[in-house]
Design brief:
InterPro entries: Apolipoprotein_B, Lipid_transp_b-sht_shell, Vitellinogen_b-sht_N, Vitellogenin_N. It contains 5 helices and 12 strands. By secondary structure, it is α+β, with helices and mostly antiparallel strands. It has one domain: Lipovitellin-phosvitin complex, beta-sheet shell regions, CATH 2.30.230.10.
């Protein structure tokens, strides 16, 4: 089980030590991490890919609009590629919004939440280093103090950027690394320009993924935002579909949109219709400037792309703190 949280002064002390060692560690950069990845990813090294990111999570009783609660995240995303298959993700300028009402046409009206600033600070505090050796499974090197729920949101962003490899067949089933683990995925090339796929889509049944844990917390860290952290008695279905637009020349992701739909029956509730949670993530490319830095240090902690439960490893008090941060 997870270690006990030390009292605050110790945390501060550790933090100071950490800051100190990280300065020192920067001199010890591994200049030549040589992954075996010829053209395994779509991102060229010595470039930075700047995206606008938007994620919306809404939950409500199926078939009704009034009880729907919606939360929206916006961030600027920078994916820097200092070396082949090595990346540094930076998330800045985040905002967190929620619905405060509906206009006469039934359209949701959104406003910034009280803790939007706090959320923005947490999202931009640490960069996240990752590597995708051989272009297959992502290895993440989070900073020691990165909170799990923030790391999970970053995992969601990375996952939305991982376009499957191009295939010659128009349709193919592949096993791909996702935030829900290893998932059987139907990959379709919908448009080609010459030989190059310019539009692709993926579909997956999330219950088939080996890392999908609907019982532990909520189905998605984005769903967690609105406090859906109670055990789900019956998950009826969970599916995800993504659409990618790719640059015809350089093959990077110009736009990615992933939609998830989770349908479940809540615990002890008279509701016979079930609750539906939708999560939509959109990434839109804004710029691809060149960079000079080849610096990439792996970091000591290594984790995978799959979401980590934020509840089972921490006492209830901390789960509350998570919700406070995000609500
Ligand atoms: C890598 O790129 C080259 C040239 O663009 C191509 O001929 C080769 O098939 C690619 N290799 C893989 C594994 O995709
Ligand atoms: C994913 O699952 C499939 C089928 O069980 C397996 O063949 C494949 O090796 C797995 N991939 C990874 C990266 O674990």
């Amino acid at each position: 089980m997870g270690p006990q949280r030390p009292p605050l002064p110790l945390v501060l002390l550790l933090l100071l030590l950490l800051l100190d060692t990280s300065v020192w560690a920067q001199d010890e950069v591994l200049e030549n991490v040589n992954w075996n990845c010829p053209n395994a990813t779509r991102f060229k090294h010595l470039r930075k890919y700047v995206y606008n990111y938007e994620a919306e999570s809404s939950s409500g009783v199926r078939g009704t609009a009034d009880s729907r609660s919606t939360t929206k995240i916006n961030c600027k995303i920078e994916l820097e590629v200092p070396q082949l298959c090595s990346f540094i993700l930076r998330t800045s300028q985040c905002t967190l919004k929620e619905v405060y009402g509906f206009n006469p046409e039934g359209k949701a009206l959104m406003k910034k939440t009280k803790n939007s600033e706090e959320f923005a600070a947490a999202m931009s505090r640490y960069e996240l280093k990752l590597a995708i050796p051989e272009g297959k499974q992502a290895v993440l090197y989070p900073e020691k103090d990165e909170p799990k729920h923030i790391l999970n949101i970053k995992r969601g962003i990375i996952s939305a950027l991982l376009v499957p490899p191009e295939t010659e067949e128009a349709k193919q089933v592949l096993f791909l690394d996702t935030v829900y683990g290893n998932c059987s995925t139907q990959v379709t090339v919908t448009t080609r320009k010459g030989n190059v796929a310019t539009e692709m889509s993926t579909e997956r049944d999330l219950q088939q993924c080996d890392g999908f844990q609907p019982i532990s917390t909520s189905v998605s860290p984005l769903a967690l935002i609105k406090g859906l952290v109670r055990p789900l008695s019956t998950l009826i279905s969970s599916s995800q579909s993504c659409q990618y637009t790719l640059d015809p020349k350089r093959k990077h992701v110009s736009e990615a949109m992933c939609k998830e739909e989770h349908l479940f029956l809540p615990f002890s509730y008279k509701n016979k219709y079930g609750i539906m949670t939708h999560v939509t993530q959109t990434l839109t490319l804004e710029d691809t400037p060149k960079i000079n830095s080849r610096v990439f240090s792996e970091g000591t902690e290594q984790v995978g792309l799959a979401f980590e439960s934020t509840k089972s490893t921490s006492p209830p008090k901390q789960a509350e703190a998570v919700l406070k941060t995000l609500q």
